[in-house]
Amino acid sequence: MKHLKKIDLVDMYVVRLPLVKPFETSFSVQTHREALLLKITSDGVSGWGECVTAPDPFYCYETNSTSSHIIKGFLIPILMTLKNFSIETVLQEFDRIRGHNMAKAAVENALLDLLARQYEMPLFQLIGGKHQKIMSGISIGIKDDMDNLLESIQEASDKKYHRIKIKIKKGKDVEVLNSVRKTFPFIRLMVDANAEYTLEDIHILKQLDAFDLMMIEQPLNYDDIYLHSFLQKQIDTPVCLDESIKNLNDAKTALSLGSCKIINIKQGRVGGMMKSKAIQAYCTDKNIGVWSGGMLETGIGRAFNIHLQTLPGFVLPGDTSETSRYFTEDIVDKPVALEPDGLIKIPEGTGTGVNVLSEKLDRFKIFYARIM
Ligand code: OSB
Ligand code: MG
Fold first, then answer.
1. Sheet holding 365-370, edge to edge
2. Ligand 1 geometric centre to CA of 141 (Å)
3. Which residues line ligand 1 (CB under 6 A)?
4. Quick one: DSSP state of residue 75?
C-alpha cells in the first residue's frame, strides 16, 4: 500500500472564473465558477484538489465557507496527527466527521494527486482504473428561448458528444421536449430536474415517457430516496439519482427500494475517488449503470472526473464536457477537448496530469491563505 510520510504545507485558494454563458438550473443561475482549491505539499511534491461546492447552498447544504471551515478546523488537523499513512487510514479518520463530503473529497483528491506524483504514476493507475479514452457528455442549462436550446443541441451533436442532457423545470419540460424530439428524433437524450417535482406532478412525469429518454435525473426532493421508489414503479423512463446519493449506504437503500435504475456518481458529493469506487463496485455487482457527474469544475476537478471514469462500471457517458464551453481561460495547462469521435483522452503525466498555471492562479484568485 502506498504511503505518505507526513504533510509539510497546506495552501488554500479561491479562484473566480467567469462562465462563457450563464448556466441555469431549476435551483439557480450561475454566472461564475467560484472554486475552493487546496494544494498539499509533502517532501517538495504538491498535489491539488478542487472542492466542488459553490458559494451558495442551493444544490446542497455544503458551501465554500462550510468546506473551508471543515477543512481548516477538522480535516487538516486530523491529517497533521498522521505519520506514514495510507489514503485508507485518512478516510477512516475522516469518517468520524459526519457529512461534509465535498470538503473531505477536496482533501482526498489533493492527497491522491500528491501520492501519485510521489510514486510517479498517473492517477488512474493509483485508483485501479485502466488506460483508455472516456466518453463525453454535455449538460445544457435551461434556456429562455427555444431556438437557443436547439442551437446548443445542434452544436453538441456536431461535436459528437455521446449524450446530451438538458435541464428541465416546471413549465420547461413537456413542451420543450416535444420540440427537441421533433428536431432531433435520434440523439441520446436525458433530462435533469434537480429535485423540481413532487409525486403530485406524476401526470407531468408520466408524459416524459413519450420522449425515449435515457433517464430522468433527480426528479423528486433533493434528499428523498423512498418516494422515488413509488415514482420509478409508475414511469418507464429510468430514474437516475444525483443529489440523494451521498454515500454507499444511500446507494444500497436506493437499490433495495427500487428507487432508481442508474446512479450519477459525483466524486465530490460522495467524499472522493475511493468512496466513488466503492459505490461503483456495488452498483456494477447489482447490474446498475453509473456515470460521473460534474459541478462545473475547473481543470483540476475535471481531471479527477476523467480519471474516475477509467474504472470499470462507468458504462454510461457522464457530464464531462469540453473546458471551452464553460471557460475561455482555465487555471490548468491542459484544457479538456473532444477528439473527432467525441472521446476524451486522459491527461498525460503523473498524478492528474494537469498542472496549475501560476499566472492564471494569480489573476483569478480572490483568496489565498497558508492554512498549515
Ligand atoms: O445536477 O448535475 C447537476 C452543475 C452544477 C450543479 C449540479 C449539476 C450541474 C450540472 C453540470 O448538470 C455538470 C457539468 O457540466 O459540470
Ligand atoms: Mg444532476
1. 45-51, 29-42, 9-24, 365-370
2. 9
3. 59, 139, 192, 194, 242, 293-296, 319, 321
4. I
| Residue identifier of the C-alpha nearest atom 6 of ligand 1 | 295
Contact 265, 240 (CB under 8 A): no
pLDDT tens-place string over residues 242-269: 999 999 999 999 999 999 999 999 999 9
Q: Is the dihedral of CA 155, 290, 300, 67 positive or negative?
A: positive
Q: State the ligand closest to the CA atom of 24.
A: 1
The band of 1, judged by pLDDT with boundaries at 50, 70 and 90, is: confident
**Which of the residues are catalytic?**
167, 266
- Span 56-71, mean pLDDT? 98
269 CA to middle of ligand 1, Å?
Answer: 12
Kindly indicate the confidence band of residue 44, based on its pLDDT and cuts at 50, 70 and 90: very high
Q: Atom 8 of ligand 1 has which residue's CA nearest to it? A: 295
Cα-Cα end-to-end distance for the chain: 26
CA dihedral 199, 201, 206, 208 (to 10 degrees): -120
Which is nearest to 326 in space by CA: 201, 149, 105, 141? Answer: 141
